[in-house]
Amino acid sequence: MFQLSDNDIHLSAQATDKQQAIELVADALVKAGYVESGYLQGMLEREFQMTTYLSNGIAIPHGSLNTRHMVNKTGVQIFQFPQGINWGDGHIAYIVIGLAADSDSHLTLLRQITRLLDNEKAVKQLATTQNVKQFRSLIMGDTHYSIINAESISLGVETKSLLTLTALNAEKLQQQQAVNNDFIMELLASPALPLGKGIWLTDAVVGNQRNAIALSRAKQAFTHNSKLVQAVLTIATIDDHIHHTLTCLLDEQVQDILLTGSTEDILIALYTQPNTESAVENSPTLIGQIPTIETIVTIQNTHGLHYRPAAILVNHIKKYNVSIAVQNLDNDSQLISAKSLIKVISLGAQKGHRLRFIATGQEAKQALEEIRKLIESGLGES
């Protein structure tokens, strides 16, 4: 099993050109005991034969066949060059991974790097982050670290202020470089969303830098605008890797753990898939039931159906004892369960997109009428 340690990562490196960058990498491989001192020559030979630049700002210099005998053990040294290195042919490398291999244990890393080649946001984070643990998490694809960890959970907070809990979450997210000042400014100026049971949600459209969640829980419950407050969740999101965890938040058992559990209990709960309604794509049972009622509603939200309005919609739909499917008519999506948050978000509904809802059950007509009103009112966003 390939292991990447914090000592194998070098942030904020500087080099004047490609050769100097390779020299830095080779020297680090030698000092780490992975290769003998002559390995540099093989790396330069390999680069002369064929560029080791991959794409999306990543290069992987490594030795030639003539220097393979100089490898003591498999290992890597990863350098971050925030200013970029001219790798030739108009390519700029921000992440340079020096590789020495005498076995196939490094293939885990190479597979993850291949996935990064199409993820511009992740590579941009790799090129700029000053947090070694975050860098390692992004390289190795450790999404659990990316989303929530013990350091982002605050329990037993002595306060009776919703804003205080939100600000504490914002501080935690900023410390982990998940958000910037733009996020915090919008977050503190925006109203929180009550999810129920005393749990409130806060987020911002701008300033998200990576997927992350922070949780603050008051020592004693209090009220805000006549509604119970016990805990505040603050969400930062940049892509769909956070969807699994977001779906967990709507599970009642998970919500109970958020309100009463220990830090370890909360982490386990958010890593465990809750029981969610199964998919209904093209379900003949649902589509063939009679009577079936449907409606088409146009999304009004400026930023589309992102997590916050989607959560409001799904929470509302779950109140009704009906079967409801939805599809996005403007991107030819299939019918999916409207009671699944992850699936509703995956519709990719933008402002002006038309959503088609199909409902079956005694409360179908009432549910669709309320859904229409909710969407046309902006789903909690002005």
Automatic annotation (TrEMBL):
Record-annotated PTS EIIA type-2 domain positions: 2-142
Entry coiled-coil feature ranges: none
Domain HPr: 292-382
InterPro entries hit by this protein: HPr-like (IPR000032), HPr-like_sf (IPR035895), PTrfase/Anion_transptr (IPR016152), PTS_EIIA_type-2_dom (IPR002178), PTS_HPr_Ser_P_site (IPR002114), Sugar_PTS (IPR050893)
A Pfam family annotated for this UniProt entry: PTS_EIIA_2
Gene3D superfamilies registered for this protein in UniProt: HPr-like, Mannitol-specific EII, Chain A
General function of this protein: The phosphoenolpyruvate-dependent sugar phosphotransferase system (sugar PTS), a major carbohydrate active transport system, catalyzes the phosphorylation of incoming sugar substrates concomitantly with their translocation across the cell membrane. The enzyme II FruAB PTS system is involved in fructose transport.
Name of the protein in question: Multiphosphoryl transfer protein
Organism: Pasteurella canis
Lineage: Bacteria, Pseudomonadati, Pseudomonadota, Gammaproteobacteria, Pasteurellales
